[in-house]
Structure formats: C-alpha cells, structure tokens
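Researcher: Here's a chain I'd like modeled. Treat it as a single chain, no partners, no ligands.
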Amino acid sequence: FEDGLFLDQHADLLTMGQLADLVRRRRHGDIAYYNTNIHLNPTNVCVYRCTFCAFRSDLKSPKSYVFSDDMIRERVLEAKARGATEIHVVGGLHHQKKFDWYVNVVRVIHETWPQIHIKAWTGVEINWFAHLTKQPYRWILQELIDAGLGSLPGGGAEIFDEQVRAQICEHKADSESWIEIHRTAHELGLRPNATMLYGHVEQAQHRIDHLLRLRQLQDETGGFQTCIPLAFHPENTGMSHLPKPTGHMDLRMMALSRLMLDNF
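Model: Modeled as a single isolated chain. Structure tokens:
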C-alpha cells in the first residue's frame, strides 16, 4: 500500500466498479440471472491450430476422441438428472466429419430430451460448416434450427482485431465473418451470447475496439442475450509463457463490459 500507483489503480477500479454497478441496478435492480447448464464437447479433433488453445488434438493423437450417438444421449441424460436447463455444445472442427454429423449431434440431443435448450456451435463452427457445404450462413443456421438448435454460445470471437487474430488463431473465421453469422442468427430469431477473450497478447485498444463492434451490432439488431468476458488461461497452450490475467484485470474487464455494453 506504499506504492502510489497501486493505490491509484485500486481507486480507479473502485470508481469503475461503482459506475458499472449503477448501470446494472438501473437495468435490473437486485435481480441476477443465471441458468443451469452442462457442457458437451463431441470431439477434440480440430483442423485449426490456434496458439491459445489447450483443447484441440490431432486425429491420430492418443488423446483424440469422437462421441458416438449413445455417448451423446448419456451426456444429455446426465444433464437431465442434474437439473440442467441448457446444454452447451462446442468442440473441434473434425476435418473428416461432414456437416450432417454436426447436425446429428443437435438432433440426437433434441430427440433424447426435447425440453432442454440447445446452445450449440460457435460462429467459427458455423463458418466451417459453410465451407464444408458451400451454403450461406442462413441455410446452415436454419438446418440446425430445424434439428433443435435454440441459440449459439458466442465463442470464437476471441479479439476482433485481425492483427491479434493472426497471432492467436490464424486461419480461423475472421471477425467480419463472426459478426455476419451473428447478425444472421439474430434475424432468424436466435439469441446468442457474445464473448471476448482477454489477457493474452491484446492491448487495451483492442479490447475497446472489440466491445465497440459488439455494441454496434447490438444497436442494429438487439439480438445478443449477454456478453461473457473470458480470461485467458495460458497453461498447456502455445502461449504458456504469458502470465494469467490478475483478479484486478478480471474485475476491470467485467466493469468495462457492463459500462460499454449497456445495450445488452
């Protein structure tokens, strides 16, 4: 506490936190919203090699896996037994699986338990499906909706700045594709989440730019349900030399998101 900078940072955080709390109370009072969900990751085999990822696997790696229909049903029944209201489906982009396989994942979940909300496939996966089928995003999303899709999880946004993306997720769907996919999802009546991955190689201006782009699309469509700032975890990634985001940074990012995305 003898460090003046330390004191200034915490005073700044307190002020930002108070402002963010004011925005929250004006919007929602003392009501907090949550759901009870369970994750289903049908495969970890992925065609991409994102530097920040600790999940992906090569096809012939000993740790690679692919869920069968029976394994999917078992996971859904586990969700039901635990009182989940939503199942969150994301995974690798398995280069040997056709689009029908991904649609079938949604269909099996829906047929096993029609009442559960299915939040499945990020914008990056939707972009991959369009690549596989040579069909527009609207067609892809409608096929998934017909199979039982309820919303999109909002992942894959990472940081929109293309220079940052070139360092952490080269070749993956670019920011404009992500935004167009979510604009289309909003037009079809889906209510996706949005995300922002922070605490890696990005700088403050990249985070601000990211939030401004989300805010602009929300002003246009009103379709996002919530924004989830995601702290980067460097362990077992190609960026393991980086420090983890601090608790101080986590609080700042949550407050900043509430202030900048008051239209969410």
